[in-house]
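note to self: dont lose this again. the chain is below, predicted strucutre after it. 288 aa total, dont forget to put it in the shared folder this time
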Amino acid sequence: EIAELKRENDRLKAGRNKLQELEQMIAKVQMDISLLKVKTDHMQATDCMTLSESNETDKTFENSNYNKVYKATEKPDSQHKLFCALANVISNYAKRNGIGNVEAGNFFHDLEKELFLRPDELLCKIKLLNAAQRLWTSDLKLNGRELCSILNEIIRKDEASVMKDATVLARAINELCLEARSSPQPVPFPPHSCVFRGAVIPKDHIAFFSIGRRYRVPMFLATSFQCITAAWFCRKEWHRNKGEHAGVIWVVHVDPAGRTNPLKQCQHANLIKCSKFPGEFEYLFVPY
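---
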């Protein structure tokens, strides 16, 4: 009788394991169906647009693919939409740069794991935008490039083939940057009425930045409240490029009146609140 009970118990355990496997398979299929629906809806919403690989010299904000698609794109209101756009951006970048599917897939899943450390943000429409900020500040790399760098390259080159998905991520990030336009509370103000950006540029591009020059920046512009943070980024990039490009620190001045008057603050920039590296005090400007 004892032996028979043991065998029956083993059969029940095996049945439970199979049931769990079946439930996991059903959940995966449901997730795939949701992602497919999101992708289909997004394609239908933008398939009537005429997008083109624009010439760098002729590109303006008005005729950019970014502007055309952004107007028709809504901010993601579910983790499915956020992850679908993220997966497509990574997949497209990998194909264009000869990166294998396995490496690209691992990069996506590593980012996914980081976000699932805070599941409450993925399950709440309001907090979902926090997850977008964490994606932007992640230091995980695909072939030496962080997601923020990949997204900026897509926006900067105005790549039509992946702009539909890139603008979904941009919409989510911009919800923070544009907070000053709708929030009754003032956004954090730069302590010295200026912010700093450290990077490298080709030496023959330095002359472009002349007194009186007016221009749009066709990408997210990351700056910091702290000059030392900008200097660290400048030094890191200079060493990475082995001194081939010039190290530059930009000082971006804002209206000092914004310290006490919210109407005088930048309406298109904000301090990243859900950063993986809060000590950087990143002050992010929207593209263009």
